[in-house]
Amino acid sequence: MKMIDFLVLFMDINWVRSQFPGLGNPTVFLDNAGGSQTLQTVINRIGHYLIHHDVQLGANYAASVQAKAALQKATESLLVWLNAAHLEEVVVGPSTTALLRILSLSFGQTLSKGDEIIITDVDHESNRACWLDLEKQGMVVKTWCINRESQRLESDDLVALIGPRTRLLCFTHVSNVLGAIHPIEEWVGLAHERGVQVCVDGVAFAPHRLLDVQAWDVDYYLFSTYKTFGPHQAVLYGKKSLLEALPGINHGFITTSPYKFQPGNVNYELAYSLQAVVEYVAQLASGPVNRASLASGFKQIAAHERTVMQPLLHFLNNEPKVTLVGPESDAERDRVATVSFIHHEIDSRTIAQAANQAQFGIRFGDFYAVALIDALGLRQRHGVVRVSLAHYNTADEMDRLIRFLSEFFDRY
Predict the structure, then answer these.
(1) CB within 8 A of 279, min separation 6: which ones?
(2) pLDDT of residue 9
(3) φ and ψ at residue 209, rounded to 5 degrees
């Protein structure tokens, strides 16, 4: 490896862990797909806003003007993170589930009876239930189903589903169970060639790789910031022209984005704290908040997570009574560090609960990917065991988990 590549990919894990006060807990935290640890700088910014900017926005007095400027600067950092072009394209809200519901309520008003929406049986229920509810208004919802043998959504199956009345395609960038990275550019291209808009759930992708909504040409993209080292908030990106054309759900006289999608306004202090997440990733690269620094920071994140994940994948792939649920590959292009599996003789609940007692924070179940677990026939096994890593996890933590699992499996 060239020295410049080494410098780009090297991450000071001790410094990284020092930025997350919650890692002082004795539990080995391996439930990051459910929610990450929060940066100390995020916590600091929440307090800073409440101390220095705890006023309502929109007034002419100095404190209100200063608070508005502070919040706008934070939103501008989200533009860099997303690679969005306009402030109006960024909507901050309480959760991805809530923002998808808002989007569906607005988008649904533009549809006619018989118009079609395509969802998948791989997605978290957030990107399914809100669209299925539109069937009550006479819309048609089709399901793009996983190929059980390949454990993939096949592009040919998508093309077969798209018809002349298809208006929207909804899919997840990364399955929160499988960990597989989907070919977003290919699927967006297939949809756009046929005049179909695209809504992508990026929750399980955003903690692990750099976002780039312009490169993907996606119409709507969402992710949760409490899974990307920040507060319990979420972000909806939408192309400016599309958001402008959608009806809002706020008061009738509020007609501009993002405000028409933010009833009661945004949570000021939490939105303000999001800037600290962007600054942190840039700091990994010892650079300013720009795309180059973020790209370098996320390269470090991906490389470190792969290194920590590799022994776990090797162990599970070579355990005769275990089946990996998701890609066997550890390649960065194929998957993120969310690893799910089942044991042929021990149900998933038993494994996870035993691990919990040994102070490993892993989980079992369907993780709200209800249709996926049913499609794979895993309901009776209490779903899968999921080990979801973040870049602050260590090789030592993984070695300890593997030793525990190996000894536990040997008892059966």
Answers:
(1) 41, 77, 289
(2) 60
(3) -140, 160
Give the chain's residues under pLDDT 50.
1-8
DSSP SS3 for 352? helix
Strand 90-93 and strand 322-325: the pairing is: unpaired
Measured CA to CA in angstroms, residue 294 lies from 76, 214, 235 at distances of: 14, 15, 18
Q: In what helix (H) or strand (E) does residue 74 lie, and over which residues does it extend?
A: helix 62-82
Which CATH fold topology does 3-38+288-410 show? Answer: Aspartate Aminotransferase, domain 1 (3.90.1150)
CATH number of the domain at 43-281, please? 3.40.640.10
* Helical H segments across 223-357, by residue range: 240-245, 268-284, 291-317, 348-357
Kindly report the CA angle at 292 between 288 and 296, in degrees rounded to 5? 95
Phi and psi, residue 71, nearest 5°? -70, -35
Domain boundaries, the chain: 3-38+288-410, 43-281
If you search the block for the tokens 């292009």, which residue do you land on?
A: 333
Look up residue 147 and give its DSSP letter.
B
